[in-house]
């Protein structure tokens, strides 16, 4: 398991938080995703053999936000 923090622009409310966390935890290999709205990031725990950060960023973009 690995933990990374992905910076994300555009998240402002609880709905944004739920969208990003839901999208990430639906990916195979992601065990936990926790958005911090104040810090504008999401902490993700995942199995690096099952999912790549680039795939997670694509999922965040699909929700309408801008991962860094």
TrEMBL record:
It comes from the Bacteria. Keywords: Copper, Metal-binding. Residues 2-68 form the HMA domain. Pfam families: HMA. InterPro entries: CopZ, Heavy-metal-associated_CS, HMA_dom, HMA_dom_sf. CDD domains: HMA. One of its GO terms (molecular function) is metal ion binding. PROSITE patterns: HMA_1, HMA_2. PANTHER family: P-TYPE CATION-TRANSPORTING ATPASE (PTHR46594). This is Copper chaperone CopZ. The gene is copZ.
